[in-house]
Structures are given as C-alpha cells and as structure tokens.
Amino acid sequence: MSKISAILKARKSQLKNKKDGKINKKSSETSNSTGVHKNSGAKKGLQNEVKQFLDKSQNETPESENEDMTMDDFLNGDFEDSAVTEPTTLQKNKNPSPKDQETEKGVSKSKKNRKEKVTQEQEESSSSDEEEADAEQYQEQLDSLKEKDPDFYNYLKKNDSDLLDFNADAVLQEDETEGGKRSSVGKTEITMDMLSKWRDHLNNQKSLTTLQKVIQAFKAAAYLNEDEGMNLKYSITDSRVFNDLLLLAIQAVPRVLNHHVPVQTEKSGRKIVNTDNKILSRLSPMLKSYGFSILRFLEGMTDAKNISLLLRETQNVLPYMITYRKFLKQFVEAVVEVWSTNRDDSVRVSCVLVLRSICLTADLTLLEFVFKHMYLTMIRICSYTTVHTLAAINFMKNSSADLFLLNPESCYLVTFRYIRQLAITLRNTIHQPKPETRKLVQSWSYVHAIDFWSRLLSRATWLSREKGIAVEMQSLVYPLVQIALGAMMISPSSQLYPMRFHVLRSLIYLSRHTGLFIPMAPVLFDVLDSPELSRKPKPSTLKPLDFEVEIRAPTAYLRTRVYQDGITNQMLELLGEYYVLYATSIAFPEFVIPVIVRAKRFAKKSKNVKLNRSLLILVQKLEQQTEFVLTHRAKQKFSPANLDSVETFLANEEWDKTPLGAYVVVQREIREEQRRLLREAILEDQNHKEDMRQKKKGALKNDDDELNSLSDEELE
User: Fold this and answer.
1) 358 with 328: CB under 8 angstroms?
2) If 563 and its partner were Cys, which of 262, 281, 289, 557 is the partner (CB 3.0–4.6 Å)?
3) Where are the alpha helices (DSSP H) in 261-389?
4) What is the C-alpha separation between 247 and 253, in angstroms, rounded?
5) CA dist., res. 633 & res. 380, Å (int)
C-alpha cells in the first residue's frame, strides 16, 4: 500500500509541476542505471499488486504508454512528458556489449536532436492539452477508487488524506471554467467573472495558484499593446477589467504573501521576513515578475491618484524583494525620478514613504546607492530654480535630510564624499580662476548643495544632542563653513550679491541649530561698503528683483535704484537675523560694538536717506537689546568657579520677547507679505506672457488678422 501511495504522490507532484512550468526534464538512463540494479528484488514483489491496481483503476491508457511502457518502466520512470522525451530502455546489463553501447549512444543522440527541434511555441500549445488530459485521468482514478478498492481507499484516507483531496480544477484551474474567453491567437481573455473568482480565492483560500495567475495577468496588463506582451498567456480588452485587475493585484497580493510568509516589524520600524522560508523560495520567480510589472506601471503612469495608490501598496511587498538587488536599484531610480519631477504633493509624500521603507530594510551598500542617487537627482533638478520649482526643491531638501539620517553611518560616508567634492571644486576655481571653473561655483547647484548639507548637519547636531546618535556628523560642520565662506568671497562683484545672500542664509540656519559661532559680520560689512550702495543710483522702471529665485542680478539692474533698495533690504534682514542669534548671550553688549560703530560711521558719510534711516533703526534696536542684557547681567553674580550660571544666563527668557527679537519678528512678517505680493505679480506676469503666446499660436494656425493688432511688447 505504501508503494502505491508513493506512486500517487509522485503523479500528483507531476501535475502541479507541469502547471508551474518547473518540470526539469532529466535523462532516464542515469536514474535507472542505479535504481534497477538496487531495487530489482523489491520490484518483482510489487509488480503483480501494481498491475492489478492499474487494471482496476484505469479503464483507458494512452496509446503511447500502452505500447512503449513496461511494468519496470513504470516503477523506474521519472514521469517525464512522452511528447518531448522518448522512452528509453530501462534495464541494462552490468557489462553492456559494444553493440549495446552504440545503441545507447544513438538513442541519446537522436533524443538530443529531437529536443533541439522542439520549439517553445509547440511546448506551450501542447502543454495545456496534456495537463488537462492527465488531470482528468488522475481525477477519474481517484473517483473510481472508492468503489473498486474500498480497503485501499480507507487506507489512503487514514494515512494520506492529501492524495484524496486532489482536484483537477483546483490544481489546473482552467481559465475557461472561470469565465475566461479563448482568443483567436491562443490567449485567454480576462473577464469580470474571472476576476471575481480570483478575488474570492485570494480572500478566502489565500491560494498561491490563484496568486500566480493574478501576477501573470498583472504582467500582461503592464505590457499591454507592447511587443513583450505578445507571448504572454492573458489578454485584456476591457478598460473596466484593466482597472479592477490593477486594484486586485496591488491590494490582494501583499495580503496573500503576508498570510503565507508573515512580515515582522522591529522596534526601529524595520520590516523583515524569514528568507529561509520554503514558500518564499518557491515564490521567488513570481515576486520578480510582480516587481518588474510594478516598475513598468510606475514608469508609465501619469495620474497622481493612481501613482500614490501604487506606491502606497508597494510598501507592503518590499520586504519580500529586499534580496532582488537588480530590481531594487531600478525601482529606486524610478521612485526618485517621480519624487523629483512630480508636482503633486501626495505623490511626493508617497515616494518619501517608499524610500524610507527601503532605507529601513536595506543594507549599507544599497543605502549608499539610495542616498547617492537622491542627492545627484536633487542637485540636477536644483540647477533650474524658479518661483514655480522653489517649493518642490525645499521639499526635496527636507525629505532627503530626514532619510539620510535614518542610518548615520552611511550618511557620514556620503556626506563626507560630497562635501569633499565641493571643496575640490572650490580649490580648482581659486587656483585656476577661469570663467569655466567659476561657473561651477557660481551656480544654483553649488548653492543648493551648501544649503542642503547645512540642513542635514543641523538636524544631525540636534540628534546627537537630544538622542546621542550621529555624533560623528558634527566633525563635518567646520569644513562646510569654510567652503561656504570661500564660495562667497570667490568674486566681489555686486552682480553676485544674490548668491552671497543665499549662502549667508544657509550659514545662519546652521549656526542657529548647532549653536556654533560663525563670523558672518565681515561679509555683510563688505556689502555695506560696496560702490553699489555708495554711488548715486540711476532711475529705473524695472520691477523689483526677487532675490529668493535669483543667483545673479541681470546687467540691466546694476547701479539702479531698484537693485540698490533690494540689496539694502537683504542686508538689513541678514544683519538682524544674525545678531538675534545671540540676543540672550551674556556677551551680547560687547559683541555688537563693532556693528554699532560701523553703522553710525556709514550713516554720517552716506547720502542714501532710505538706507541711513533703516540702518539707524537697527542700531537703535541693538542698543536697546544691549541695555536689556546689561540690566539682567547686573543682577547676577559670576565668578570663575561658577561658570554654570554663565551658560544658564537668560535661558528661560524667550528671544522673541526681547527688544531685538520683537523687531526681527515684525520685520519677518513685513518681508513675508512683500514676498507674497511679489510672487503674485511675477505669476501674473508669466501667465500674461503665456496667454500672449497662445494667442500668437492661434493666430498663426487660423491665419487670423489678430496677430497684426498685438504689439511686440505684449508678446514679450
């Protein structure tokens, strides 16, 4: 009985392997040369019993098996497909004659030639019919076994009940029975009924066979109307079926995978799976196909809601694909591209969440690849900065800094490498001051790189101070400050003052969050003493320059009142932001003496009334802040042995409640309102220009006389 049970198990395993396409055709000569000689005694005792069983349970045998297969062949056979592999002689003599050897060589040679002639299309067309015939034949044997041999049936029911649970429809699950339609080219057309049955099987039974079908159909949808989709099994012609299939694939597949191979979440938020799980190894080809199908959809989708849904559901599958390095690299590149180019906020947030999930699960090598690709993509996008792209650039900087600090070790390596690259670029510009080398420093990419690393190091300093991590990142603050100061002084031209103001803002941000002193007053005094502010400006009707989205002032703005007023506002803003950092410092009275003396001296010589008035107001606020600090300092008793009181001086005092702090807060509100109005004016002007371009195109297309009525100034 156990021998017959083993035969049935092998038969069942053969049918399942055929459906999955994983049958490894082996030569029967190697397996039979050892099995026949070792087990010949046992086989003779089983031949009669097996023959009786086959006579009872099998009414009809395929012609090829009746004519060519003997009882020894059945016991020793590896159940290969007779349509592809020719039956060979199984019994061999221990010392075969030369004639037998030549015969065996001829058989193996003809067998090899026959395999080479069989094409892939013939295998695919014949496999489905053979699988259906074998499945139905095996099902009939099981159905008749209960009546013809009840004792053996009870034995199987008691010891091997899985054999009796076999169902041809459950293993093969023919698409026609599920509502599918067979097309003229041999493909199965997916219908709503088929999707409904698949959904029931996945939700109720968590069937892996159905999962494989859904993934195959998902791949057909990904390569729809493309050459790569011509050889796939399924076809889609209905848009409703296409949409429902996408929802089923991206939502049900993670649930079924989690049922068979659960995902474990660590305290750090990292999601892992047991890679030694046998089911996971079996699902490896399916997961790779599913991953590249997702990648295909991500590259071709344009709708923001669909992209967000796809990325959100993909997070649940990533722990199973963490070992597929080729797919992960391509997937990271696609997600980063969407993150940097898509204008929808929900899509960008979904991209950040996906990248965060990868960073929490990936190793150091993959992390370095993710960080490097994000940084280079961000710098490439930042090279074109306008009022429309500024918000997206700031989002990229902030989200990148958060992701980088998920792993301080990899973050330090990447940060060190690219800060060093900035230093090398600056050194080459100083040693070879050519226009080509200066463009590398005096560019949006260089300025945004300094600003990004300032934000990153500021957050790293906070983490090291509050949580004790990323301590090694503080050592990179000094070289970054030196690079920033050198980039500002690389050219004293007043045309590059906007770039200088951008770098100063980055340094102020870095100083505010790290608590480090950075000497920025000399750079601001250099602007104050420049000829651009001391000379009499030319009248101009130009609109105000938006310093936030400009790195180099246009030539038309130089020595104009508009540009002079803009520089004045920027300089006063940065002076206030710089000195308010130390508003609660015990050394503030001595710290502001140079700027007070310098400002009063400039006001006596300058003929710029507006600048003088604004500068004296700032001096007045600095003096009031000095009196405020001196009043509180007089109440304290300090000694060299009591330095703790110096560190806690005005620690409980809010900086925005001090005289200088209140002034800076009001100035921030005024400037924010001015920037809002300026941006609205710029957007309105750009929209007007776009309308003029559209009218021009319409006039040219329709051959209308409207083009003659538009002036050149309106078209510009």
Assistant:
1) yes
2) 557
3) 278-282, 284-300, 304-314, 325-341, 345-361, 364-382
4) 10
5) 51
| Cα 126 to Cα 124: distance, rounded to the nearest angstrom | 6
Classify the phi-psi angles of 665: left when phi > 0, otherwise alpha if psi is within -120 to 50, otherwise beta.
alpha
Token pair, residue 596, equals: 């007070």
What is the total residue count of the chain?
Answer: 716
Using the structure block, give the residue that is written with the tokens 């790189």: 449
HSE on the CB side for 387, CA within 13 Å? 16
Q: What is the pLDDT of residues 519-563, one digit of tens each?
A: 999 999 999 888 888 888 888 888 888 899 999 999 999 999 999
d(CA 315, CA 535): 61
Q: Find, among 411, 416, 317, the residue nearest to 370 by Cα.
A: 411
Question: What is the DSSP code string of 496-537?
Answer: GHHHHHHHHHHHHHHHHHH------HHHHHHHHTSHHHHSPP
Q: How many CB atoms lie within 10 A of CB 341?
A: 12
Compute the distance between CA of residue 391 and CA of residue 438 in angstroms, rounded to an integer. 27
**How far apart are alpha carbons 698 and 624 in whole angstroms?**
63
| pLDDT tier for residue 690 given thresholds of 50, 70 and 90 | confident
Q: How many Å apart are CA 183 and CA 235, to the nearest integer?
A: 8
- The structure tokens listed for 532 are 């651009």
pTM over 0.90: no
Q: How large a percentage of the chain has pLDDT more than 90?
A: 39
265: three-class secondary structure by DSSP: strand
